[in-house]
Amino acid sequence: MDAQPRIGIIVSSTRPTRICKNIAQWVLEIAQEHGALVYQLIDLADVGLPFLDEPLPPATGHYQHEHTKAWSQQVSACAGFILVVPQYNWGYPAPLKNALDFLYAEWASKPVSIVSYGSHGGGKATEQLKVVLQGLHMRNTVTNPALSIADEMVDAEGQLKDITTDFAPFKPDVAQTIGELVTMLTIFA
Ligand SMILES: Cc1cc2nc3c(=O)[nH]c(=O)nc-3n(C[C@H](O)[C@H](O)[C@H](O)COP(=O)(O)O)c2cc1C
């Protein structure tokens, strides 16, 4: 049991050449500057869920498979979440929807922030995700940063060249949403 509430920072792209993990790591470092809570990266590529294969609806809380029970424990251990989300064809990645759909009560009432990114930011992915999080009865932060990745920020392989320098303008919004999460957990819990 943590002395402080734990925030799970979810890496929602599982592509082998993803930039999501670097961005999530950058978010984690900003969160750790804030102190206050315990922060943990949760990489959906490591979680490794299959497509939803439980026979009963997750709202029943009856799980048959070990992978679901393990995912339930991991999510239950967190008091809140930061979802780091690329925009894919104006939506958000399928592995994230699958991971959300696997559980139900484990998400409910918990504060959640969305940090999206894409060449035009990730506003359209965020709008779709907000509706889903509302369906799960989560409490979304007011600030949900959408990070615009300009062509010159990435190399020929699509990897970020200098995240510290290029993402510096986004840092205040990310710090703001982390501050909102902390407030929701410590004041309005
Ligand atoms: C399937 C797919 C769809 C994409 N659709 C969009 C999009 O709608 N808008 C956008 O700005 N970028 C889009 N992109 C570009 C991504 O923002 C960019 O590839 C980013 O690196 C993806 O995140 P990831 O590397 O962490 O998976 C798309 C990329 C992929 C792979």
The oligomeric state of the chains shown is single chain
The end-to-end distance, rounded to whole angstroms, is 17 Å
Sketch the topology as an H/E string, one letter per element.
EHEHHEHEHEEHH
- Unique bound compounds: flavin mononucleotide
Query: How many strand elements?
Result: 6
User: Rg from C-alpha positions?
Assistant: 16 Å
Helix content: 25-40%
The low-pLDDT segments are: none
Question: How would you sum up the major sheet?
Answer: 6 strands, parallel
Shape assignment: globular
Classify the secondary structure makeup into a structural class: alpha/beta
Topology (elements, then pairings):
Layout: E1 6-11, H1 20-34, E2 38-43, H2 44-47, H3 66-76, E3 80-86, H4 94-101, E4 111-118, H5 123-135, E5 139-140, E6 146-148, H6 163-166, H7 171-186
Helix pairs in contact: 1-7
The protein binds flavin mononucleotide (FMN).
Question: What features would you describe in this structure?
Answer:
This protein is an alpha/beta fold and 189 residues long. It contains 7 helices and 6 strands. Strands 1, 2, 3, 4, 5 and 6 form a 6-stranded parallel sheet that branches. The chain is globular, with a radius of gyration of 16 Å. The mean pLDDT is 95. Residues 13, 15, 18-20, 86-90, 118-120, 158 line the site of flavin mononucleotide.
Quick tags:
binds flavin mononucleotide; single chain; globular; 189 residues; alpha/beta
In short:
The chain is an alpha/beta fold and about 190 residues long. The chain has 7 helices and 6 strands; from the N terminus they run βαβααβαβαββαα.
